[in-house]
Structure formats: C-alpha cells, structure tokens
Amino acid sequence: MATGINFTSDLPRIYDIVQNTMMRANKDIIIGSLKEFFSEDSYYHYVKDEWGFAKTPDHTDLPDGAGLNDDLTTRLYIGERDRYDVIYYPAVLVSSGSWSSVPIGLQRNKYVVQYKSINYIDGYGNNTIVQTPDYYLLAGAWEGSISIEVNARGLRARDDLVELISIHLMDLRWDEYFKSGVAIKPAEISIGAPSETEDYNEKLYKQTISVSIRSEWRREIPVTDVLEAINICVDIGNLSKDPPEFASNLTINTKVDLMDNLSEIE
C-alpha cells in the first residue's frame, strides 16, 4: 500500500518524504470516496459542479424531483464543512480527530537499506544480476480517528445515510481504502447516539460515525555518498593446461583471412 505526497510545500521533496497519509490525506480520500459512492445513487444522488464542489443551485422554479433522474442539483452535501454561502441538508461532514505516532520498529527502520537490481549482459550472452544500494528507508505509522457527522431534516434520511456510510467504510470500499494507505479498523467503527436540535425553527437530526484508522509515513533517502565496488568475474576455464580447458558456456571464434594465410607461407 502506498500513497504519495501532494503538499504545495517544498519540504517533502527536500527531506525525501514519499508518503505521509495522516490527517489531511485521510480526510480527502474519505470525502472523495463518499462522493463517488453516492454519485451512483438515484435518491441520495451526489452531483458536483464545474469546480468540483457539491452542486447547490437556487431551487427557485426547479421541479420537486430535481436531481432524481438528472444532474440539475445534488440531493446530498458531502464535504469537510458547509459551504459558506449555502446551507444544504442532508449533509455529510467529515472532520479529523486526534492522532498519535505508532513506531513500526524501535529504530523506525533507520538502518534499513533498500537495494536495486541491475542486470548485466556480456558479449557472450551471459547475464549477471548485481544488487546495488538505492536508498535508506525510514518509516513509521499513525493511528487516529475520522468523524463523519450526518445532518438531515428527517429521521429516515439520517438513519439511511448512517447505515449506508457505515457499510461503505466497513466492507464495500474497505479494500480501496487499504490500497490508498488508509487502513480502517473494522472492529473500531462506532456510531454515536442520535440527537436533534432546532435549526431555523425546524428540527435537525444528527448522528456521528467515528472511524479508527491506521496509516503510515515513509522517507526514502537516496544513497549518494556510498561507493560500492562491484567486481564481475567471468570463469573462462584453466589456461595453464595444454590444450587449455574452457568453460562450457564460453565460445571462442577465430577468424583467419587471406592475408594471414599468405604471411604464413612466406
């Protein structure tokens, strides 16, 4: 499993950080996966606009069934928080919890050297694979939590979304998350107690899903100051004997032209 770095900062490149799937990466991966998941649904249909945000247009003069069989509007908001210019329900809000470092070894793999294989082929067709040092590996793990809050105007919508998101995380997309570097602990997906509040003189029904996650960080420091001498030895046989004994996989071809024959006659 591996996930790269997409920071706008230069520091990951300067310090050879090739993976750091922690707070921001986990949120982005889960939000993106939930958007893709609900875009397949007809009722809780997620639609994005031309900028990649949830499509929440003015519903004036839109039909009551807008978004059911078309992409006129999203029927579900999914994101890290509400858009500043609109309040849209039902809404799925993803946020990060606390995180802690969990070493995978006492030395964080500090003295592990990764090698690369180079295949050398000589003029006789013999090939030799030589292992050369490529980079030093340092790695560790993160463990933390992601909270997914479901807000809806109706009890049925809230309950449906909580159940769909839970099975999405625990089974339907678990392998995809794992391949992306987000290991969701199936035994540690918990659903909080439902609640309700008043919002603009209407009921707002809420429930939160807490997800425990294990992910990794990784540095690959190139080996630039290590010189390794590589000796390639070819066994061609025993030349001290008369006639010489050559190795079975070695063929020597002798070419004699006309001028060589004339010189021998002289």
Brief synopsis:
This protein has 266 residues and is α+β, with helices and mostly antiparallel strands. The chain has one domain (11-222).
What does this structure look like?
Helix content is 20%, strand content 35%. With 266 residues, it is α+β, with helices and mostly antiparallel strands. It has one domain. Strands 1, 2, 3, 4, 5, 6, 7 and 8 form an eight-stranded mixed sheet that branches. It has a two-stranded antiparallel sheet with strand order 9-10. Strand 7 (195-199) and strand 8 (202-222) form a beta hairpin. The model is unreliable at 225-235 (pLDDT under 50).
Sheet-strand content, in percent, reads 35-45%
Unreliable stretches:
225-235
What is the overall shape? elongated
How many domains is the backbone divided into?
A: 1
Helix content: 10-25%
Q: pLDDT average, as an integer?
A: 81
Number of strands: 10
Tell me the major beta sheet: 8 strands, mixed
Radius of gyration based on Cα positions: 32 Å
What is the H/E order?
HEHEEEEHHEEEEEH
Class of secondary structure makeup: alpha+beta
C-alpha termini separation: 75 Å
Tell me the number of helical segments per DSSP (H or I, 4 or more residues long): 5
